Amino acid sequence: MLLAPSEWPPGGEVRLDGAVYRPVVLTARMFAPPDEGRWAPVRQTMRELAAQHGDENVRLVVWFG
Fold first, then answer.
1. 3-state SS class at 57
2. Residue 12 contacts by C-beta under 8 Å, 6 or more apart in sequence?
């Protein structure tokens, strides 16, 4: 039994048993650690680089092995 569409149209929703389900778009910010702590210097550096070079020109690649 398929309860959700394979693709959600903009503003799409599924109604099931009186409940309404809407898609949630997850972003990297939702998974990022808080601004304080061990990652604070990295985030500050990223902000400074983005201010100087533009958001689209700054990337952080991290490898956890």
1. helix
2. 5, 22, 23
